[in-house]
């Protein structure tokens, strides 16, 4: 299989992993008013997919053994496409929640599978491919955030049509992945691929738990910003469109750090420097928002920090393992536990917003989470473990 085709497949799949979640934030106020949702309930629209990503990520290992990474990713894309497309028909809260659930299951399966896919096809280019993988995710998030409100206006004020539009990304990716899955299946049947190695979840490995905790804190911060940054900016008197544009800036600013920081970490092996540096930028950005500094400026450190931490969190389990099967198991565990913990972030922000009537106290809580993240980052250290053990 040609290098370009495989990279294209990776990019197209990655583009699907954020729009089902990030497209909601710029339209959150409209959705709340239309469906009559409280802040806590509205936060479930972005929290539920993240929670699903935690609960269902371990199932990706079993699907990979049965169908291969390629076939399992096809299933994940189908779930994402159906879940997103159904939003066109939302008439009440239960169906809207179901679309978030279905999309979340698809994203849950795709995350660890794509990490394993990278280890399988690019064992000597992990940092570069993780950079491409995570950059494509950020691009998907950025495009969906930036276009959700304009699409709503174009479609006659329909937030449902705007949200459902992102199912087209899955429709574009599916033919590429179906061809890739068929080729991989043919190779397995002809004996051209090596025997499958079964690698259990590393639940007895202390280092795996440290990486899981880091992933959870990182995800809690990232998805809190994804869900509530635009509404928080609106609470300072900015329009819905301006808030959406600032959130788009947040995602665009993150693109360079998402692409290049994994490669810098791989080259210089100074993990703590990059981990803590990115976290400090997040902290600065959150404090700037609370101190009424222009959100246009606050979006810059927030974007650089969040953009750098996410690909590092994806890269660490891959970098710690010896083969695609171990990479899948470690990624499934870190993403499963991490996303479950991360799902609490947007819920906590929504709850504090309802409790205090302001985002200020909620974002101070976010600052505390960032400090806890820094402590865990120091425990990760600069060097990967010398021996990977599942036990």
Q: Secondary-structure blueprint of this entry?
A:
Blueprint: H1 3-15, H2 19-22, H3 28-35, H4 39-56, H5 59-85, H6 93-121, H7 126-154, H8 159-164, H9 167-189, H10 206-234, H11 240-268, H12 271-290, H13 295-320, H14 324-342, H15 344-356, H16 359-380
Task: Give an overview of the whole structure.
This protein is mainly α and 391 residues long. It has one domain: MFS general substrate transporter like domains (Growth Hormone, Chain: A), CATH 1.20.1250.20. It has 16 helices and no strands. Helix 10 runs antiparallel to helix 13. The longest helix is centred in the N-terminal third of the chain and has 29 residues.
Features of this protein?
391 residues; mainly alpha; Growth Hormone, Chain: A; disordered C terminus
Could you give a short description of this structure?
With 391 residues, the chain is an all-alpha fold.
Ends: how far apart?
35 Å
SSE-based structural type: mainly alpha
Stated plainly, the CATH topology is called Growth Hormone, Chain: A
The first-level CATH class name: Mainly Alpha
**Major beta sheet, specifics?**
none
Gross morphology: globular
- As a whole number of angstroms, the C-alpha radius of gyration is 20 Å
The second-level CATH architecture is Up-down Bundle
Tell me what portion of residues adopts beta-strand conformation. under 5%
The CATH homologous superfamily name equals MFS general substrate transporter like domains
Please indicate the count of domains: 1
| Overall residue-averaged pLDDT value | 87
- Overall helicity: over 70%
């Amino acid at each position: 299989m040609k290098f370009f085709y495989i990279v294209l497949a990776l990019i197209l799949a990655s583009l699907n992993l954020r729009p089902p979640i990030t497209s909601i934030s710029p339209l959150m106020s409209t959705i709340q008013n239309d469906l009559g949702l409280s802040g806590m309930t509205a936060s479930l629209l972005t929290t539920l997919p993240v929670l699903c990503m935690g609960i269902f990520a371990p199932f990706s290992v079993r699907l990979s053994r049965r169908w291969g990474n390629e076939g399992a990713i096809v299933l994940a894309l189908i779930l994402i496409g159906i879940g997103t497309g159904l939003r066109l028909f939302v008439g009440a809260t239960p169906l809207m929640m179901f679309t978030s659930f279905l999309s979340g299951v698809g994203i849950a399966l795709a995350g660890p599978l794509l990490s394993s896919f990278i280890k399988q096809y690019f064992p000597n280019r992990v940092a570069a491919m993780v950079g491409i993988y995570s950059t494509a995710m950020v691009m998907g998030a950025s495009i969906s955030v930036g276009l959700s409100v304009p699409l709503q206006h174009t479609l006659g004020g329909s937030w449902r049509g705007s949200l459902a539009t992102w199912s087209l990304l899955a429709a574009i990716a599916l033919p590429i992945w179906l061809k890739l899955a068929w080729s991989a299946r043919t190779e397995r049947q002809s004996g051209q691929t090596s025997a499958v190695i079964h690698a259990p979840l590393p639940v007895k490995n202390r280092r795996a738990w440290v990486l899981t905790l880091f992933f959870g804190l990182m995800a809690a911060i990232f998805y809190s910003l994804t869900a509530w940054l635009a509404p928080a900016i609106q609470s300072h008197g900015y329009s819905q469109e301006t808030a959406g544009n600032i959130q788009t800036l947040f995602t665009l600013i993150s693109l360079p750090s998402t692409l290049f920081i994994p490669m810098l970490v791989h080259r210089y092996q100074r993990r703590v420097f990059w981990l803590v540096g990115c976290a400090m930028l997040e902290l600065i950005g959150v404090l700037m928002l609370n101190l009424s500094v222009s959100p246009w400026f606050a979006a810059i450190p927030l974007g650089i920090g969040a953009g750098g931490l996410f690909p590092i969190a994806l890269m660490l389990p891959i970098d710690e393992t010896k083969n695609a099967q171990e990479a899948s198991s470690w990624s499934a565990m870190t993403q499963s536990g991490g996303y479950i913990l991360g799902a609490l972030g947007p819920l906590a922000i929504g709850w504090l917003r309802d409790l205090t009537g302001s985002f200020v106290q909620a974002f101070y809580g976010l600052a505390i989470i960032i400090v806890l993240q820094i402590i865990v980052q120091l425990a990760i250290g600069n060097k990967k473990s010398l021996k990977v053990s599942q036990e």
